[in-house]
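<goal> How does this chain fold?
<body> The protein record starts here
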Amino acid sequence: MPANLPSHARTVIIGGGSIGCNTAYHLTKLGHADVVVLEQGQLTSGTTWHAAGLIVAGLLKSESECEIYTHGRDLYARLEQETGLPTGFRDVGYLQIATNDERTHEMRRAAPFMRRYGINCYEVSPREAQDLFPVGDLNNVKSAFYIPEDGRANPVDVTMSLGKGARMGGAQIFEGVRVTEITAKNGTATGICTQDGQAITCENIVICGGMWSRQLGAKAGINLPLQAAEHYYLITEAIPGLPRDLPVLEDPSTYTYYREEMGGMMLGLFEPGAAAWKLDGIPDDFQFGEIEPDWDRVTPDLEKAYSRVPDMMTHGVKKLFCGPESFTPDLAPLVGPTPELRNAWVACGMNSLGILNGAGTGMVLAHWIVDGLPPVDVTGINVNRFGKSEATPAFRRDRTPEQLGMLFGQHWPDESPKTARNVKRSVLHDRLAAAGAYFAEGHGWEMPDWFAPTPGQAKIENHSWFRQHWWDWHAGEHRAAREDVIVMDMSTMSCFAVEGPHACALLSRLSCNEVDVAPGRVVYTAWVNEAGGFEADLTVTRLTRDKFMVVVGENSHGHTEMRLRRHIAEDEFVVITDVTAARSQINVHGPKSRELLSRVSGADLGNDAFPFMTAREIDVGYAVVLAMRVTFVGELGWELHVPATQAVQTYDLITDAGHDLGLRNAGMQTLNSLRLEKAYRDFGLDVDNTDNPIEAGLGFAVKLDKPGGFIGRDALAAIKARGVPHARMLQFLLRDPEPLLYGNELIYLDGREVGYIQVGGYGHTLGGAVGLGFAELDAPLTAARVEAGHWQIDIAGQRYAATASLRPLYDPDMTKIKV
């Protein structure tokens, strides 16, 4: 019998697994009771039912990951008391092992950061690890880390308990109801239609359909790049004497987790070279389903996994399970409002961590829907971060097999995927490759990371957390920027033309700084939300009265475009055009940049004719390019926006003219080290939607008194009125030249932990590692307090003395930029 559905609901959630029930539960907790959950089969029948139920932290790399994880662990531990239904949660503990020094260093870096956010991760000796996991062969273990509060839960029990909690709060849950269509009008989702012809109108639609989400979203034009992959686990027959409360063991060297299951041992594989499943789409009727195991492919991985617990070899296999789990291109979930349809939301692509992170994700999305803003940093999980390329069958086919191993293996700084590369390439790519570029991948782009003396040397044989073989080459690029001149291909920067009679009104409403300026002016500005939190940092250049150019980092492409389009008022006429692919951006920076460009252009590039933060069209050889005198490296220089059809010629002309000036190509490593020396901020890396420009040290770009105000103006005014903030972003320089900073290292002031480094690099000019991070006190953090304090940074458990500063440690008066 078809379910008798209501004709209207405030929110309809599609999918009754862990994520759908978690979202419903958390919505009702916020008083958002009119919720309908529609499940095409039975609750948990997709992937939830066969999940391993691990509630273990892993190595978490962000504040939001820690908050999402701890929320779920704490909820599952107490949910039975609320609903009367068990979750099966048992805090048996969680043990991670390292079999090499690099993995040990990685874990030692991560543990202090995790402890800061309530995850009691601490190092134990190999002997203590053996005592905790007596059935394992840990002879080759170098170190181990243990979290006693972590453990395991029963995925079906958890979901049923959440479902009951949601019903107790007013939600309705219907099984056996397949949604076939998301209805929309004028770009806004309005409801759903079901297979049996029923319809529900609603104010919000939430896609929580797991591995079905991509194909359901595609019917409504929503881009959700995720793909199902085969995932294996094996359960042995009972092993006599196996402790029921054996901790969960994770071993990156075998890409395996181990835990007790019904008196036997379960091992789960996250093997490299996995297999994508059903590229063309998941069958609607695949419920409580299994996949035929590919024994030939997984047997070598199983044999390696068996070696960690040799007793398993003497006991039979009770079950070899193969079932699908969905994975995303960057192993982060897809969460938030969709850019394609207003009032449509998603939470999917959980990368086999749907039980682990389901509660936290449901909490974040519920607050986002009810409050209008998420409670944590969502820059890394926002669904609008991807383009359509990542959802193509070819991309999913090539990238997915790599993802399982990347999720469970050893991790490295600056590591890029090896598969599904060359999605986006600058027209200068071949020139850069011939110049010795080593390419990393960023948001689909092939980005020159550093340059080797010859193309044959542009490779990494062994990643490391310490200095790598390309260190001196990168240092040479850095010195060239400070002493001579560099050329950088920055075509990855996203560029939008914003034009029309109301273009200025739109950009003024979004921008904290004044953008109603004379044509030819470049304005650096932040965009913030109603609470004053960052939504972007970028430049807005006024070209004519009604035409502007917005330039923003490649990591903010989708978010910036979505924000532009969503804030055009009904009575406004504005045309937004993504011109990123139509032009190349070639940056020329350094003390000799004016001399170099003067050799190839007849334009007057002097300070009076072409001052800092202005834009002009100039000739460069046969090309007419838009030149902006701006910098993200802290030196004299220009961004050249060149038609893509003339980029190669322009690049050749510049490089030919700069040989005797010491011109060098420079990559992203050098961009990072230069900008960190100058303490330039970068949205999505240093600051996010939970930070504000006042505390981030960007108050100079906030014009609270500009006519008409801007979104978030009142919130920033209130923050400003409170006086000197208790939390401020500072620049740090390690006094010891040897250690390196990457991010997440804890900050100490006079022996007390006060914050952490957001992102780090090496300041080759300043002579040590540099980083940016917020420090927070229980009193105003004044300049005098900063200068008088004894600052230290924790790296892998060792504290290093540091200099802290509110002003840039390199060229604080900007004399080099404005020369």
Q: What stands out?
A: The radius of gyration is 27 Å. The longest helix spans residues 63-83. The mean pLDDT is 96.
